[in-house]
Amino acid sequence: MTQQLIPFISQLALTEQLLWLERLNTLISQSMAAQHDSYKSSFNVVLADSLSTLEKSRCEIAIVANPDPTTLADFPQLVWVQSLWAGVERLIAEIPSPSFKIVRLIDPCLAQTMADAVVAWSYYLHRDMPRYLSQQRSQQWQQHTVALTSERTIGILGLGELGQASAAKLRLNGFNVLGWSRTKKSIDNLTCFSGADGLEKVCSESDIVVVLLPLTQQTLGLINQGLFSKMKPTAGLINFARGKIVHHDDLITALDENLLSHAVLDVFAQEPLPQDNILWQHPNITVLPHISAPTNRESACEIVKHNILEYCLTGKIPPSVDFHQGY
Question: 3-state class of 191 per DSSP?
Fold first, then answer.
């Protein structure tokens, strides 16, 4: 049996990379031992920096987690790359015409983690938590009317795996939910819109707008002054997608002019968010350190193991990114 080396290419801390390697290799070896006669090759996931130039030239598969895209040029025979993140826009932007396929992590666990975050922070806005935090700081004791979830409409922008899971969990909590996607979709028990007119309609009718779109040329700066002007002045915004989808200067202007009430931001054009950035101090912005849906190592390793061994058995590459669409 021949051995194939799979480089792990990442800018994560070395201790974290080693945890990924240990779990991936354990799962792969266990599965291969259970079906020993089925495989002609064995696999060993290794740190990219540990490979010689000759070894790098023979790699067909790479696993990446927030890599420097330029390092992939050191592996000229790559057939496909497995990302441990759902978002791959940096790879797409900096390697516009790769010779290999890029496979996003499609993990039901990730979708449920995101759905939990969407529900949690929707309640944060629904139950006026920012207002009560402000009152606490000024030692002000004042109660406000509590609306029912059935009286709130939440608009989900982006109806991929994350958006659909979030919409379903919001409905379970009694919220009215509208969905928007760039192209037309039909989803059971969800009122869906598409196109420019549909986007304006969802934003204008929603009490909370949740952004779960991929970052593409079409979504860059999509949430801007034009949309803020259509929103309810009492509405809130949650961005759990990518920072560049929301035009932050327009957002600050909209908040200052009372075009909307509050924004919860978990993603930014530059991360970590610089300490001198105005977003930190704005009274109507909640800043989160990109924690809405972290990759779960256990479930992700199971999916990556399955993809690698399926490729070994059948030569079939998992569904990969459409570079024209950007996701």
Answer: strand
Q: How many helices (H) and strands (E) are present in the chain, helices listed first?
A: 10, 12
State the angle between helix axes of 297-314 and 14-34 in degrees (0 to 180), rounded to the nearest 10: 50
Question: What per-residue string of b and e applies to 129-164 under the rule 16 or more CB within 10 Å gives b?
Answer: ebbeeeeeeeeeeeeeeeeebeebbbbbbbbbbbbb
pLDDT digits (tens, 9 = 90+) for 66-90: 899 999 999 999 999 999 987 788 8
Task: State CA 296 to chain mean position distance.
Answer: 13
Match 């051995």 to its residue by tokens. Answer: 3
pTM of the full predicted structure?
0.90
Please state the separation of Cα 210 from the chain's center in Å: 13
Q: Mean pLDDT per 10-residue run, the chain (327 residues)?
A: 89 95 95 75 92 96 93 96 86 85 93 97 98 97 97 97 97 98 95 97 98 94 97 98 97 97 97 96 97 95 96 92 74
Among 131, 290, 297, 306, the one annotated catalytic: 290
Catalytic residue at 290? Answer: yes
Question: What pLDDT is attached to residue 40?
Answer: 67
Find the catalytic residue in 152, 182, 242, 282: 242
